[in-house]
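About this split. The held-out portion is used to measure sequence recovery: a designer receives only the structure tokens and must propose an amino acid at every position. Recovery is the fraction of positions where the proposal matches the reference. Here is one held-out target exactly as it appears in the evaluation file.
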């Protein structure tokens, strides 16, 4: 969730760049059917502990679709960036790299990101 805060902050600081669709940097939550542990922990942190107040709540943080694997791919890109520059704002190139990791590389969206301008 800290990654999404950093993405949103950098997106706003960069003037909402057109190279990144806004929905890609928004936290969608976790699936209530398949990611119940993560959803419960998210609700605990946000609602009971008052953390991550600026993240969209949506339907009680329920994404209604499994997203955990995509979040993990994004984290794989974000963590090295954070370790090199803790607390530093993300650049446009870093935002693009992080959100590009979300879709599975073999999915239609993943192929479209790898091959801009083509429709799958």
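Reference sequence for scoring:
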């Amino acid at each position: 969730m800290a990654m999404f805060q950093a993405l949103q902050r950098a997106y706003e600081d960069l003037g909402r760049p057109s190279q990144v669709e806004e929905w890609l940097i928004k936290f969608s939550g976790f699936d209530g059917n398949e990611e119940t542990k993560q959803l419960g922990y998210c609700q605990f942190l946000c609602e009971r502990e008052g953390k991550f107040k600026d993240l969209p709540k949506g339907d009680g943080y329920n994404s209604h679709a499994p997203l955990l694997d995509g979040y993990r791919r994004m984290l794989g890109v974000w963590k090295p960036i954070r370790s090199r520059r803790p607390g530093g704002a993300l650049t446009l190139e870093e935002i693009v790299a992080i959100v590009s990791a979300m879709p599975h590389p073999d999915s239609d969206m993943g192929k479209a990101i790898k091959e801009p301008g083509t429709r799958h």
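Annotator remark: The chain has five helices and no strands.
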